[in-house]
Structures are given as C-alpha cells and as structure tokens.
Amino acid sequence: MSSNFSVTPWEVKGKVDYDKLIVQFGTQKITPELKERIKKITGDLHVMLRRDVFFSHRDLDLVLKDYEEGKGFFLYTGRAPSLGMHIGHLVPFIFTRWLQEKFKVNLYIEITDDEKFMRNPELTLEQTRQFAYDNILDIIAVGFDPDRTFIFQDTEYIRNMYPLATKIAKKLTFSEVRATFGLENSSNIGIIFYPALQIAPTMFEKKRCLIPAGIDQDPYWRLQRDIAESLGYYKAAQIHSKFLPPLTGPEGKMSSSIPESAIYLTDDPKTVERKIMKYAFSGGQPTIELHRKYGGNPEIDVSFQWLYMFFEEDDNKIKKIEEDYRSGKMLTGELKQILIDKLNKFLEEHRAKREEAKELVNTFKYEGKLAKEMWNKIHE
Ligand code: TYM
Closest residue (by CA) to atom 36 of ligand 1? Predict the structure, then answer.
C-alpha cells in the first residue's frame, strides 16, 4: 500500500495513484465492456467517461441491470457549502446532469450546511446557510430537470429525514465511525452523528441508489453498504471521479482555502488569465529552445489535464494539442491561452445561467414535482 498519497473526505495529499486507490478502497475499475454497455443505452458516452475521469464504481453493473429490467434506480449526490465553489466542485454535478438526462431518473442533492458548520470551528451556522443558498445557485445553473430533482438542505429537511437517520445511527457504532473518519474523543458529537445524515438519502426510495461523486466520499458509502440490507434497502452503488488537480501542480486536490490553487466560478476573465499564467503548473521546458527540442509533458501539465478532463470535449482537438505539446511544437504559453479562452467562455455562460437560477430556487427546494412529493413524505 502506498504511503505517498492519502485520500479522505477532508483532504487529498500527494499525487494520487488511482489504480492503487481502487485496490485500497476495494472498488471496481470501469472497464471498456461496462462503458460499451452504458453506450448501448445512452447512445453516446460523456467525455468524463470516455477519458476515465469517472474511473471506478461499485455495483454500476447492477444499476444497469435494474434499469434494463425496468426496476429503475435513482441518483444522489451532494455538497458541503462553502464560500464560493471552484471548478472542481462542478465535476460530479455536470456528470450527474448527463446521467439524469440519459436515464430520466430522480435526483436528490443534499446540501450539508450542518456538516460544514460542525467541521469548521470558525464558521457560524448563519454563514453556512448563506453559503448553501449561494452554492445552490451554482448547482441549479448546471441544468437539472426541475420535475425530477430535489435539492434539500439538512437543517431544513431534517424533520422528514430524522426517523430514517435514527435507524441508521442505531446501526453504526462510535468505534466504526471513529475508525472510518479518524474521529477523536475531542470531536464534537454532531460530527459523530453526521454520517447517518449523509447515508439517509441513499434510502429515499426502495430502488437502487447510484451516487456520482469524487472518490473522497467513499468512506460514507462503505458504512452504508454494511448496514443497508439489514434495514431493508439496497447497498448504494457508486460511480467515482478523479480530482481535477489544483493549479499549483498534480498533487492533492483544489482547495477552497488556497485561492491560487483554484479557479472559482466567480473569477472574472482577468483573474482567470492572471491565475493560469502565474500559477498553472507547467510540464514545459524552462526555455523555448529546450521546449522545441525536448517538448512538454502533458501528464504533469495542469493546463493540459484541465483541458483533457473537462474543457476540451473534442477528441480530435485534444489529441492534436497533446501531440503538438509533446513534440515541442506548442509552447506552454499557447497551451495556457487555450485553457484561458475555454475557461472564460465556460464561466461566462455559467454566470448567465446562475442569474436565471435565482428564479428556480423555490422550484428545486420546495415547489417542483419531486420537491413537493418529498416534503409530503416522512422517511420512516
Ligand atoms: P464537498 O462539498 O467537499 O464536495 C462536493 C463534491 O465535489 C467533489 N470534489 C471534486 N471533484 C473533482 N475534483 C475536485 N477537485 C473536487 N473537489 C471536490 C467531491 O468529491 C464531492 O462529490 N460530505 C460531502 C457533501 C455530501 C455529498 C453527498 C457528496 C453530502 N452527501 C453525496 C457526494 C455525494 C462534501 O463535503 O462534499
């Protein structure tokens, strides 16, 4: 087992070896066969599947089987709200949107204003609830189906979830939760109970639940899978993504608390340009002469990785960029400029949709078709 990197729900250290992580976490690789099976249903494959950004799973084969047999399934994902989302936070939401569009299934999005508050000594509950409102706008901007999506905030929806959460909590011991999340005797008791609230939505329907999320959230799902069947529900299935690397280099993940490591959804064009030019870790050579001679290394180049994982969906274009960069024909500055243009176009469109989202908050949280159904339902 490698000790050069570690992945937990709160931090990612070192350069992650994703093949090793699959072994460490006991998940399955998404094989070409599985992708073919998905493509048969969906007609095409999302770029994040084609390029193995979503690379690992549990029971995805069973989800497809349930779908094919007409039993259906549902989607669940979430967000611990913070001051401003960065571009990495959109990875699971963009992919989830695609899944919802292709499979036409219900989606539950948990906004854990409680988790954020209890984990951060310096934040007030008023602040995390304000972040929740703000982050929900960015999430709505991704474009979910208003009839089939319910966005709920823990401190509001707790009334309906609490009976289910207590049943889950009773199945989990302190020693299991402590070992899974590295808690200590000094941890506040809220955070000891919290896993029950992240697990509860996996049981919102008596169908199999599929969770698209970064692989850092996996510990919760391991606990869920230990207890789900004893409560009469399915073990949750997952589809895990890699992390969009921080600007500063291929190690770790982007952090909201290190501004130079991330591009925020609110960064204006000038800020984007400055950050990419100044901080985006380069796989290029130190001088133009050397770069023309030896070429760049796209594997460690953050601008290339962002284009590959997210911003350049055209397979022919990304291949050409890779070849030109590797051969030295394309310089680091040119590569960065491609990313800057793509990012700014994306962010401009996102901000327009975010403005429109202000009109839709009530629909997704309270008044939409699924939202209404959910507010009328106590999860026993
Ligand atoms: P949070 O708010 O830390 O992260 C939200 C989602 O974003 C993913 N993520 C990333 N994905 C790609 N690249 C990155 N650099 C990157 N950084 C973060 C995370 O894996 C996550 O999917 N406890 C959760 C909130 C939650 C939740 C859930 C998440 C509640 N229920 C169900 C997923 C599924 C949290 O703190 O997420």
Answer: 80
How do 149-153 and 237-241 pair as beta strands? unpaired
- Closest ligand 1 atom, CA of 253? 15
Q: Where are the alpha helices (DSSP H) in 228-285?
A: 269-279
Residues of the chain with pLDDT under 70: 1-3
How many domains is the chain partitioned into structurally?
2
Residue nearest to atom 4 of ligand 1 (CA): 79
Q: At residue 132, what is the residue type?
A: A
- Are residue 148 and residue 296 in the same domain, yes or no? no
In a domain, 370, yes or no: no
CA-to-CA dists, residue 119 to 18, 85, 324, angstroms: 27, 17, 45
Question: Does residue 368 sit within a domain?
Answer: no
Nearest CA to ligand 1 atom 7: 89
The atom number, within ligand 1, closest to the CA of 214 reads 20
Q: What does the alpha-carbon distance between residue 195 and residue 275 come to, in Å, rounded to a whole number?
A: 36
Express each pLDDT in 271-281 by its tens digit. Answer: 999 999 999 99
Q: Domain holding 319: CATH number?
A: 1.10.240.10
